[in-house]
Amino acid sequence: MVLTKHRCGDAERWALDGVLLSPEFDFKRFCGMRSAEIHPDLTGLQTTEPVAGQVLPPIEYDQEVWACGVTYSRSRDAREAETDVKNVYDLVYEAKRPELFFKAIGWRVKGTQAAIRIRRDSHWNVPEPELTLLVNSHAEILGFCAGNDVSSRNIEGENPLYLPQAKMYDGSCAIGPGICLTQADRMRDLPIELVIERNDEVIFKGDTNTSQIKRPFEELASYLTLEMSFPFGAFLMTGTGIVPEKEFSLSVGDKVTITIDTLVLENRVES
Questions:
Q1: Less crowded by CB within 10 Å, the N or C end of the chain?
Q2: What residue intervals traverse the membrane (predicted)?
């Protein structure tokens, strides 16, 4: 089952598998429910109306997106190569405690077909395709969507303490196109693909698999909720295993396509 959010006239409506749910559906209430309660609740709210209108990011304006770093060996190696502050990323990769950081509030998040951005004060920028978990208020994983943690590698490389500036700015976070509702066990072997096009030509293509992630999804969710409550749930990006080579940087006009299992998130870079 896939939940999507749409603009229908002046209203925003949620849909399940291409059919609109009742306007009474409250996504934040949904994120406060136990996983065992979800399916009966959704079934009772289905209509016969097909979806129409613009696809929106599948998040409410006051929900939060958090992110994990250095969960794939490829990410660790790339971070070590880009900075003069050595060993810090290797230590995080091997440590018991994962790296967690705030990425975006819901109203800053972009959906599929919306524009993402690169910082004007950065010369080395990359997309980071990431399986993004939906975690409910009880720290249970309800499903996943495709995510893009757009990042400035040179700013973070100057000093790891600059990470908030490298990671958090207008247009740096995209998720979508919807939320695949499924159990965590079914996410452990999903293909992830990144394609970047410039002037209608593919200039980068890479792939990985969620089986390559070092930490279990439940562990990441448990650390996120260890000392913070999320009454409306939260989204958690789980790190990237695809990092373009040092010579590559995003440019305005590039088209970024991230595919995770059957979900396709597509964005174009704008200034």
A1: C
A2: none
Say if pTM beats, i.e. exceeds, 0.90.
yes
Q: Which residues contact 20 (CB under 8 A, 6 or more apart)?
A: 6, 8, 13, 14, 47, 49, 50, 51
Q: Domains in the chain: how many in total?
A: 2
Cα dihedral sign, 122-126-132-138 = negative
Both 264 and 140 in one domain: the answer is yes
Q: Which is more confident, 52 or 186?
A: 186
- Considering only residues 73 and 183, tell me which one the structure prediction assigns the higher pLDDT: 183
Q: Give Cα 234 to chain centroid, integer Å.
A: 11
Cβ partners under 8 Å of residue 209, min gap 6: 189, 190, 191, 192, 241
| Cβ atoms of residues 195 and 205 within 8 Å | yes
CA distances from 236 to 7, 39, 171, 255 (A): 24, 22, 17, 24
DSSP 3-state of 249? coil
